[in-house]
Amino acid sequence: MSKKQLIMESALELFAKQGFEATSVQQITDHAGISKGAFYLSFKSKDELIIALIDHFMMQFTSDIDWVVKNSNNDTELLYDFYNAAFASFQKHSDFAKIFIKEQSQTPNEELISKMRHYDKLTDKIILSMIDRLYGEEARKVKYDLIYCIKGFIHVYSHLFLFFNLPFDLDSLCRSLAQKTNVLAKHSTIPFITEELFQTFTTEQSYEEVTAEQLIELLGQTIEEIEEPIEKESLTLLKQQLIEPSLSPAIVKGLLENIRNHPHCKWVSYLLRGYFGF
Amino acid sequence: MSKKQLIMESALELFAKQGFEATSVQQITDHAGISKGAFYLSFKSKDELIIALIDHFMMQFTSDIDWVVKNSNNDTELLYDFYNAAFASFQKHSDFAKIFIKEQSQTPNEELISKMRHYDKLTDKIILSMIDRLYGEEARKVKYDLIYCIKGFIHVYSHLFLFFNLPFDLDSLCRSLAQKTNVLAKHSTIPFITEELFQTFTTEQSYEEVTAEQLIELLGQTIEEIEEPIEKESLTLLKQQLIEPSLSPAIVKGLLENIRNHPHCKWVSYLLRGYFGF
DNA sequence: TATACTAATGACTGGTTGGTCATTTGTCAA
DNA sequence: TTGACAAATGACCAACCAGTCATTAGTATA
């Protein structure tokens, strides 16, 4: 494990327990068994660390739920699958999820806030595409409210998960929430969040389209990071495809599938899916 | 205004802007125009201050929504009135609400966490009584889920309120949420939170019944605090009634009504309503 | 073995924190 | 005017903080 990862894992644990502000760099390095100076070889500052953590997790979360929404071919199970992916992600990275819930928009760190907003907007976009697909015109008036209801459900129920150590029936939870969401979509008629209001929340451009050059750069970095041969070759071929397209869509899709579940590839896989139009 | 209140108001503003940990006692006293030493004449520590703030606001919030639920005689408007009271309270004390959302269960301060849990349980109780009244047997299976849905709605929508400075149509919001709640109550059938599960969340005894002695003590304090003659006399008569009952229920109810809206009486009024059974 | 290099250390700095307390200021009654 | 008491002050303290940097340890090449 790289020193950077070691630090991130130690910090994750302590932040989840004590919060970001209340955890000192000294505590993190003690816990990781390294010196304080070594910390600053990996991160320029404590702020850079929390941002790296946010990025690391949110990239996975975003790409996970995006994949579920884009690749489910069974509309009746889509909501269930969506909630399942979201809660599975929270459960798997429960330390991060705790930080995420605690540290929401509360820090004076400008960059962190804008990071959070950014991922929040991506989540909105994914949820919206799911609603559009499931209900289309039927939910035109209330679709923005539905986004917020879904986020509210996830918030309160993930609280139970995270802060009570009880064995939960994830299947039951997801079935329950899928029905609730469906009921709201079918029967609620009074919107609060209008298209116009929703736009004002998301004024700044979100989800900037990435260029091929940026993707090639990112792919180059990722190729260096990982060792598994299949993933490494898939990434290399995809990089080649960006420089000079020669592969058929089926092959590209297959290559994307190869890397989809590798923790270090989730984000680049998400971006590539957007780029290639899958 | 007492020194204690002055400090609390200054702190409220700064905590909302910067968070609790990031605000120093020096900043608070500078902002309040007093010396640092004077702070410690009013509060034993910085922690005691945040707890006083939580108490001050949550007592008002709890008693406000309790009053609405207990005193609405129009079932069709009850949900609307409930949301209205809740959001009005958040809007009126937006600085506090920001702190509340930010500081939720994230501090290492044990007492604060248990305070939060305590008020959370009271809120659950009030919401549950509302659901029971509106839907009774009809929502027996899903009533605990409804509590969490309602809390989820309040959470996400209050976020919009608090962190975007936009003019909101409170009426529209409450109508929208009342309908959503009603739709869920009428059509959702798959519960996640069973009675048993709900009980385990709320194991410790909540809402300890207060004794007449405690109420008399509290009334004595409150009488000292306020100056308005009507409220003062009402409190004095109610205190007398506790020591030696002599007034008719109608008169007692009227006296309670007199003090209901005074900020310093809300909590004692809530407790008295419970005690006298209104 | 000698050299050149990077990785890692932890004492240190300048600054801030929550909290204390000897001292001063203000306010009464005598 | 005096004296007694409470209210208020702010310099001060030990503890801790994020971040630095001269020094050392480890490693690979020649």
Automatic annotation (TrEMBL), chains A, B:
<protein>
    <submittedName>
        <fullName>TetR family transcriptional regulator</fullName>
    </submittedName>
</protein>
<dbReference type="InterPro" id="IPR050624">
    <property type="entry name" value="HTH-type_Tx_Regulator"/>
</dbReference>
<keyword id="KW-0238">DNA-binding</keyword>
<feature type="DNA-binding region" description="H-T-H motif">
    <location>
        <begin position="24"/>
        <end position="43"/>
    </location>
</feature>
<dbReference type="GO" id="GO:0003677">
    <property type="term" value="F:DNA binding"/>
</dbReference>
<dbReference type="InterPro" id="IPR009057">
    <property type="entry name" value="Homeodomain-like_sf"/>
</dbReference>
<dbReference type="InterPro" id="IPR001647">
    <property type="entry name" value="HTH_TetR"/>
</dbReference>
<dbReference type="Pfam" id="PF00440">
    <property type="entry name" value="TetR_N"/>
</dbReference>
<feature type="domain" description="HTH tetR-type">
    <location>
        <begin position="1"/>
        <end position="61"/>
    </location>
</feature>
